[in-house]
């Protein structure tokens, strides 16, 4: 399925894909993906207990699948979208024995994409992606349209604060749309998109070395809602 997608535009993530999973060079995404998975498990016990293996899910901004590889074994089908071909190529090397994972090298902008086979999903996940998206509400609306009634949206990103600009080194600021997300804004967008039982809450704190060598501590939010 993914091989029919047009080539994705080259970006810095293509260049970083090869070493993306190496904790020594990329501790932020490796550690935060694990912590987000733990946060998901605590909020969705039926998923954590392996009771959702007939369900379908998608993830936007999947990268090399650091989160996908945790979640996909708990689900029946997992469509992993990322606009970086380099990231998707790395993911493909991991899933030879995981036919439920369908990697797609594109940005999900159309809920009618053929990669979803015209069928709704039960979960829509995103981690460390919202701060890169120019129009967050449009993306949330798109995810809402992919979900079946009763389906869940589960979003994660670092919280905007007086120090959140230090999350990325300055040479990466050019492709960052916002330095963290604001909980009340995400909550309002989810409600406006029609989600019920919306919750936006603290998920975990992530220690991270800043560009000047000092240690920072960045809070992450988890946002959930039911269609």
UniProtKB/TrEMBL annotation:
Molecular function (GO) terms for this protein are: methyltransferase activity
Which stretch is the leader sequence? none
Pfam name, any one: Methyltransf_23
What superkingdom does the record give?
Eukaryota
Q: Which GO terms describe its biological process?
A: methylation
CDD domains for the chain: AdoMet_MTases
Q: Tell me the keywords, alphabetical order.
A: Methyltransferase, Transferase
Q: Matching InterPro entries, A to Z?
A: SAM-dependent_MTases_sf (IPR029063)
**What is the protein name for this chain?**
S-adenosyl-L-methionine-dependent methyltransferase
């Amino acid at each position: 399925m993914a091989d029919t997608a047009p080539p994705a535009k080259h970006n810095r993530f293509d260049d970083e894909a090869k070493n993306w999973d190496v904790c020594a060079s990329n501790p932020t995404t490796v550690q935060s993906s694990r912590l987000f998975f733990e946060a998901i498990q605590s909020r969705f016990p039926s998923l954590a207990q392996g009771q959702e293996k007939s369900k379908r899910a998608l993830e936007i901004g999947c990268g090399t699948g650091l989160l996908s590889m945790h979640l996909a074994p708990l689900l029946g089908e997992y469509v992993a979208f990322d606009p970086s071909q380099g990231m998707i190529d790395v993911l493909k090397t991991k899933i030879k024995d995981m036919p439920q994972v369908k990697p797609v090298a594109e940005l999900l902008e159309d809920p009618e994409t053929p990669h979803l086979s015209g069928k709704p999903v039960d979960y829509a996940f995103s981690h460390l992606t919202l701060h890169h998206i120019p129009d967050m509400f449009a993306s949330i609306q798109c995810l809402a349209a992919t979900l079946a009634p009763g389906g869940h949206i589960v979003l994660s990103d670092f919280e905007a604060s007086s120090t959140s600009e230090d999350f990325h080194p300055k040479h990466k600021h050019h492709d960052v749309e916002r330095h963290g997300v604001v909980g009340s804004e995400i909550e309002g967008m989810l409600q406006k998109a029609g989600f019920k039982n919306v919750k936006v809450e603290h998920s975990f704190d992530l220690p991270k070395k800043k560009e000047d060598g000092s240690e920072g501590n960045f809070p992450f939010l988890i946002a959930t809602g039911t269609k």
